[in-house]
Amino acid sequence: MRNRPLALVGYSRVASKLIANRPLVDLSVGAGICGGRTFLRYALMLITPLLALCFVGAAPVSAQTTDCPPTAQPPSEALFRQATDQANDRGLLWRIRKDGHDSYLYGTLHVGRSLWIAPGPKLAAALRASDALALELDPLDPQVQATMRASLAQRPEVALPAALRQRLDQQLARECLTAMAADLGPAEMQVMGLATLVGRRAGYDPSFGSEVLLSAMARQGGMPVLSLETVDQQLDALLAPDAAQAVQAVEEGLDDLESGRQARVLLATVKAWEQSDAAALENYAAWCECTDTPLAREQMHRLLDQRNPLMARAIDQLHREGKRVLAAVGSLHMVGPRGLPAVLAKQGYTVQRLQ
Predict the structure, then answer these.
(1) φ, ψ at 92 (rounded to 5°)
(2) ∠ at Cα 275 (348, 87), nearest 5°?
(3) How far apart are CA 190 and CA 158, in angstroms?
């Protein structure tokens, strides 16, 4: 894509097709770990976009539900032109340099507004200057989707107590999803999928998440889209290690959904990301109420600190091969002394914050 204009109008057609033709995938990871309350608070930064798309594509409940959230509509070319005219830079962006050439790091959000479908000037420039886009897992890659289905099919299902299953079904109905349509994997994943949907009434939809739009744009421009992790690596990091902890994840996750805590934290997270407020995101643990026990802190370490070196190694490998790569991953992977910019700086990269 370097030295070529972004195919913005053509991309609008790709984005429209993606949203119009849901569901894109049958199943993906997104999670559930020991302690659902803890994980649900950082779901917006860690959950893979595959799960969000999966739930967006689930069939609606019957017309008896009257308080359904708005459904994302395929963006028209007129909307895309409007979005382009109003495009602002959001999220976190760094330039990294080593061995005589540059790559980029971009902190993403897995939900978005329809008017965010056009990249801001700095992100657009980074795309033009790059040879490849690298995501945690490419949500539009059919092979990733197939591998995810196969891997999850080999993992045991966890039966929920009847009362807990009823609570989960009630939350699915509130978001206008049928239990059958949304029963695409472990119940803990269903809770995590719901965590990405609670912003729809405020206009934030997974259909417009960063990774989906970046992948569609890169494909439209002929840019390779790569995955920094394997499916099994992500599943091992995100899934609960046993049935008891999976049930706990569902119970505490539903507590957050039913109390409205998840919606409040989601909107605060979106605000910080929209304003490119790295300090607020770095201080996430202070306001998310998600690191209040030793176990919760261990989970945060496993989900972020242990994954970041692996992703940094993959980014470094692509860069050493001579590729100018735009690596776009959840924003919590980017902040703090163990974030990707800091890890890569220790590996000899010159790191410059651009937004």
Answers:
(1) -120, 135
(2) 95
(3) 12
Structure tokens at 90: 């959001």
pLDDT in tens, 223-246: 999 999 999 888 887 777 888 888
Asked if 127 contacts 1 with a C-beta cutoff of 8 angstroms, the reply is yes
Q: What share of the chain is helix, strand, coil (3-state, %, to 5)?
A: 55, 10, 35
Residue 257 CA to residue 252 CA, distance in Å, equals 9
Least Cα distance to 87 among 212, 273, 274, 320 occurs for 274
Cα–Cα distances in Å, from 83 out to 20, 122, 158, 179, 209? 19, 15, 43, 35, 15
Token pair 């997104």 is at which residue?
30
Distance separating alpha carbons of residues 87 and 80, to the nearest angstrom: 10
Task: Write the CB contacts of 117 (distance below 8 Å, at least 6 apart in sequence).
Answer: 12, 15, 75, 79, 80, 83, 208, 213
pLDDT for position 326: 98
Q: What band does 317 get if pLDDT is binned at 50, 70 and 90?
A: very high
Instruction: State the Cα–Cα distance between residues 13 and 350, nearest whole angstrom.
Output: 37
